[in-house]
Amino acid sequence: MFNNINYGDHVSKSYENYATSSKVKDMSLADEGIRKIKWVQKHMPVLEHIKKEFERTKPFEGITIGSCLHLEPKTINLGLTLQAGGAEVAMTGCNPLSTHDDATAGGAALGLNMYGWREENEEEYYETINDVLDHKPDIIIDDGADMILVLHQERKELLKKVKGACEETTTGVHRLDAMHKDGALKIPLVAVNDAYTKYLFDNRYGTGQSTFDAIMGTTNMLIAGKTIVVCGYGWCGRGVATRASGLGGNVIVTEVDAIRALEAKMDGYRVMKVTEAVKYADLIITVTGNINVISGDDFKYMKDGCMLANSGHFNVEINRGDLEHQSIAVEQVRESIEQFTTKDGRKIYLLADGRLVNLAAERGQGHPAEIMDLSFAAQALSAKYILENDLEVGVIKAPDELDYEIAGLKLKAMNIEIDSLSIRQKEYLDDWQEGT
Ligand SMILES: NC(=O)c1ccc[n+]([C@@H]2O[C@H](COP(=O)([O-])OP(=O)(O)OC[C@H]3O[C@@H](n4cnc5c(N)ncnc54)[C@H](O)[C@@H]3O)[C@@H](O)[C@H]2O)c1
Ligand SMILES: O=c1[nH]cnc2c1ncn2[C@@H]1O[C@H](CO)[C@@H](O)[C@H]1O
Ligand SMILES: N[C@@H](CCS)C(=O)O
């Protein structure tokens, strides 16, 4: 069935190395998965460049890399990049709702060990994390730190083989920082999220666009003229607020950090306490990485028809239990939309079960390929960095050289040339004596 597909230059050309240990929903979806993988490859030039380099230099020969990332075509392309470098790759999802079953079938067909399917229950979610750990990885790539936690708590015997791990997202880095402070972290950790080429683009422009892509695709509703409350004005919040405003929404920001609140105000948004903001909201989007951002009485003051979406962390930012408690009926009214009827008769809509909407909604495609090109280039080079350096236990930022290499490659792929400092300019910048 698969043999007449032209795989292109950068993926395996046959299914001979089809990883039989994979657990995916349906291998008959592999053709479609491979078509989607090939599409994103066209839009991930930096990762494709790295893949070619890896094919030549084989930095991961004899190495096993296990990942816990959102499983969709761009992530599979990261897996193929690591595979091109000689690694045995085992992948599972980092969210029970974000896996694309065609992409995982495609990945398995192309020789990656794939574990996971969309709508896993909690037991299956952790079972597939353990399936990846069974491959005894030398390097781990995590998103949200669930796999690293399982490694430290339940699979301690594997710790000594792990040379290091990479973490994809802000909340994962916070969790791992906390773990290190408690003396519980036993491996070196590269906070890939903290690379400039990651958070400045992925968290901001990626989340900005993909959050609205998913919300609009899920609801088929207009943004223009609506009041949109953005909870959290970090990198994701800035991106979400910019796009909300660009689509014609009236944006209100809520924050707990005085500097970020001030920044939001001077960026032109209204800023107020969440208890006040919810009264005006047509749509609320949480992007804080925190728990109970919308909870308790907040639901009482919402207007009839208010929609709730989280694009931050797990399913804890919006307290679903509190909303259920105040409701007399919950009904699935459309794919990824639940309608809660409150005791006083209002309808409140929760998207994608309160999980990050840009990935967990049925229509969620995640960030654009050009954005994940940067994030996954940072992952691929960080994995190589771990292997080539004897890192100490702790959480470090990816080195600046790596960031500049990625930015340079991206600019080149975009046909953009920039200036460089002249010798005189360098001297001037280094000199403290030259004045007016
Ligand atoms: N959906 C995605 O694809 C995606 C992409 C990147 C990051 N993330 C996740 O999104 C979350 C935010 O990431 P970030 O990089 O913007 O983090 P960040 O640290 O830059 O920003 C978070 C902001 O939320 C604020 N905040 C915390 N608690 C709050 C509360 N109760 N009410 C209002 N504001 C509050 C903080 O003060 C901070 O300014 C994280 O969980 C991150 O892992 C999701
Ligand atoms: O399309 C995607 N594929 C894989 N990962 C993604 C995609 N979109 C966003 N993220 C990643 O998900 C993390 C939060 O869990 C973010 O940090 C982002 O890098
Ligand atoms: N993997 C987690 C981390 C997001 S911050 C999630 O999907 O919610």
Automatic annotation (TrEMBL):
The entry's localization annotation reads: Cytoplasm
Q: Which residues bind substrate?
A: 143, 168, 198, 202
Q: Which domain of life is it from?
A: Archaea
Q: Could you say which cofactors this protein requires? A: NAD(+)
Q: Which top class of enzyme applies to this chain?
A: hydrolase
To which pathway does this protein belong?
A: Amino-acid biosynthesis; S-adenosyl-L-methionine biosynthesis
Q: GO cellular-component terms in the record?
A: cytosol
**What positions does the entry give for NAD(+) binding?**
169-171, 203, 232-239, 255, 290, 311-313, 358, 367
Residue ranges annotated for the S-adenosyl-L-homocysteine hydrolase NAD binding domain, each copy included: 203-364
Predominant location category: cytoplasm
Q: Spell out the reaction equation it catalyses.
A: S-inosyl-L-homocysteine + H2O = L-homocysteine + inosine
- What does the UniProt keyword field contain? Cytoplasm, Hydrolase, NAD, One-carbon metabolism
List, in alphabetical order, the GO biological process terms annotated in this UniProt record. Answer: one-carbon metabolic process; S-adenosylmethionine biosynthetic process; S-adenosylmethionine cycle
* EC numbers for this chain: 3.13.1.9
- Cofactor: binding details: Binds 1 NAD(+) per subunit.
The protein's GO terms of the molecular function aspect are: adenosylhomocysteinase activity; trialkylsulfonium hydrolase activity
Provide the family line: Belongs to the adenosylhomocysteinase family.
Q: Which NCBIfam families match?
A: ahcY, PRK05476.2-3
In the UniProt entry for this protein, what further remark is given in the free-text comments?
A: SAH is a product of SAM methyltransferases and is known to be a feedback inhibitor of these enzymes. As a result of this inhibition, organisms have evolved efficient enzymes to metabolize SAH via different pathways. The pathway found in methanogens differs from the canonical pathway, it uses the deamination of S-adenosyl-L-homocysteine to form S-inosyl-L-homocysteine for the regeneration of SAM from S-adenosyl-L-homocysteine.
Instruction: Please give the HAMAP family that the UniProt record associates with this protein.
Output: AdoHcyase (MF_00563)
Report the function annotation for this chain: Catalyzes the hydrolysis of S-inosyl-L-homocysteine (SIH) to L-homocysteine (Hcy) and inosine. Likely functions in a S-adenosyl-L-methionine (SAM) recycling pathway from S-adenosyl-L-homocysteine (SAH) produced from SAM-dependent methylation reactions. Can also catalyze the reverse reaction in vitro, i.e. the synthesis of SIH from Hcy and inosine.
Q: What is this protein called?
A: S-inosyl-L-homocysteine hydrolase
Q: Which organism is it from?
A: Methanobrevibacter cuticularis
Q: Lineage in the entry?
A: Archaea, Methanobacteriati, Methanobacteriota, Methanomada group, Methanobacteria
Encoding gene per record? ahcY
